[in-house]
């Protein structure tokens, strides 16, 4: 189901039009790098770059189970993921807000491992273990972020589009 789409005229050029969701989804799918924001135990933000894949309109990422972001997600699964061009006058920046949910079933993990391989090549070939990527003593937890709200920040002309997604 497509999200409800609104253009916020307060934050853009009068000639701006809403960015269609398929265009925003394409930017998410093609991004090489994402920035993930989680919340630490004491409420401070934690932001880190990572790789990821988009599957079934959701952003997926993995992290070692002992890493800071995994520990943060154990306490608070609310996250923000960003990607884009890091330029002022061209491209499209995207922000996705949602809840990170751990993926543990083998078929889904295999699909995502294949997606990482397709996108990033051999450098990011993951073995599927028991509820995680990897079969060693240091597995990587895999998370799915289904968007609750997303934003596209267009630059030609400047315009801010908000997408609201029905509860899944």
From TrEMBL:
Highest taxon in the source lineage: Bacteria
Start and end residues of each Pyridoxamine 5'-phosphate oxidase N-terminal domain: 23-150
Keywords: Oxidoreductase
InterPro entries cross-referenced by the UniProt entry: F420H2_bilvrd_red/Heme_oxyg (IPR052019), Pyridox_Oxase_N (IPR011576), Split_barrel_FMN-bd (IPR012349)
The protein's name in its UniProt record: Pyridoxamine 5'-phosphate oxidase family protein
């Amino acid at each position: 189901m497509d999200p409800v789409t609104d253009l916020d005229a307060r934050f853009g050029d009068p000639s701006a039009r809403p960015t269609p969701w398929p265009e925003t989804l394409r930017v998410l799918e093609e991004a090489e790098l994402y920035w993930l924001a989680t919340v630490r135990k004491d409420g401070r933000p934690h932001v880190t770059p990572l790789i990821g894949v988009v599957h079934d309109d959701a952003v997926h990422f993995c992290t070692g189970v002992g890493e800071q972001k995994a520990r943060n997600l154990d306490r608070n699964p609310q996250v923000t993921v960003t990607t884009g061009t890091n330029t002022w006058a061209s491209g499209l920046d995207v922000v996705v807000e949602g809840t990170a949910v751990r993926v543990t079933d083998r078929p889904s993990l295999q699909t995502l491992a294949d997606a990482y391989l397709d996108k990033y090549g051999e450098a990011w070939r993951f073995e599927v273990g028991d509820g995680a990527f990897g079969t060693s003593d240091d597995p990587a937890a895999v998370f799915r972020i289904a968007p609750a709200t997303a934003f596209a920040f267009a630059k030609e002309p400047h315009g801010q589009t908000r997408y609201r997604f029905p509860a899944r």
